[in-house]
Amino acid sequence: MALSSRAHAFSVEALVGRSAKRKVPEGRDEEPGPGCRPARRAPEAEKRPKAGAESRAGGVQVELQGSELWRRFHDIGTEMIITKAGRRMFPSVRVKVKGLEPLQQYYIAIDVVPVDSKRYRYVYHSSQWMVAGNTDHSCITPRLYIHPDSPCSGETWMRQIISFDRVKLTNNEMDDKGHIILQSMHKYKPRVHVIAQDSRFDLAQIQSLPAEGVQTFSFQETEFTTVTAYQNQQVPGAGGWRAPGSGGMESPG
Q1: How far is CA 201 from the centre of its chain?
Q2: Which of 48, 108, 118, 233 has the smallest number of Cβ neighbours within 10 A?
Q3: What is the rounded radius of gyration, in angstroms, for the C-alpha atoms of the chain?
Q4: Residue 199 and residue 186: Cα distance in Å, rounded?
């Protein structure tokens, strides 16, 4: 089926292929932490997400990689598929960290929290999301996903792009596989946490953030709405194709 001129602007070629022609291909394949390519020096336009960091104590900075791709999705309303079995995010969250103590050991983690206490529905005749009522998130405790390379020295973390492309989202409240549990038709934002290692705790086993030694960062352009089937036809994936390297982002079927 032919895409409209506006929808074509967000096709695989426009959103993914075009980025591949630049210095860093963003969101196209899965690479383990040690194999990550060095981040290129971000132009001023890509430094903007740092202003959205929730914490910069101690001079630590977290930069969102692929921010241009995230903004393109954000402009049309990012939707993330969630399933019982778990579905990987696309775009995935990838960051570059600066300002760590080189010899200090750190854990890097991610969680996903509600943007508000509203439930949403998509109105097709106006092509936009509207509030459908209030909701209660208290029944679901945000899960913490510890990056598998943790713990590492600050020097090691700062040399690589930290990718969370293996994170999976699920709507199964009984999930026992460690996937991040979310509710459909709600708005969420990912948060990246830099956690200094503490000999008093085994941070690899924790399921919630410790009270001390945590710095938290988030970015407005990574906010998304959870769905079990794409609602906005302009969102890549809604047209029936599969985004290469997306880790399973495909139209539900």
Answers
A1: 27
A2: 233
A3: 18
A4: 37
pLDDT at 205: 74
Written as one letter, the residue type at 17 is G
- Whether residue 43 is preceded by a cis peptide bond, meaning omega within 30 degrees of 0, is no
Say how far apart CA 113 and CA 142 lie, in whole Å: 6
**Strand 168-170 to strand 87-88: parallel, antiparallel, or no bridges (unpaired)?**
antiparallel
Residue 90 has pLDDT above 50, yes or no: yes
Write down the pTM of the prediction: 0.73
**Strands laid side by side in the 162-163 sheet:** 61-64, 94-98, 162-163
Helices (H) and strands (E) in the chain, counts: 5, 15
Could you tell me which residues come within 8 angstroms of residue 227 by beta carbon, excluding any fewer than 6 positions away?
79, 80, 81, 82, 184, 185
14-69 per-position pLDDT tens digit = 444 444 444 333 333 444 444 333 433 433 333 343 444 333 546 899 999 999 99
Instruction: State how far the Cα of 188 lies from the Cα of 171, in Å rounded to an integer.
Output: 13
CA distance 52 to 156: 24
Cβ partners under 8 Å of residue 151, min gap 6:
105, 106, 107, 197, 203, 204
Distance CA 22, CA 58 (A): 33
pLDDT > 90: what percent of the chain? Answer: 57
By CB atoms closer than 10 A (0-12, 13-18, 19+), residue 175 is middle
Domains annotated on the chain, with CATH:
61-227 (2.60.40.820)
Q: Is the pLDDT of residue 244 over 70?
A: no
Place of tokens 């939707």: 79
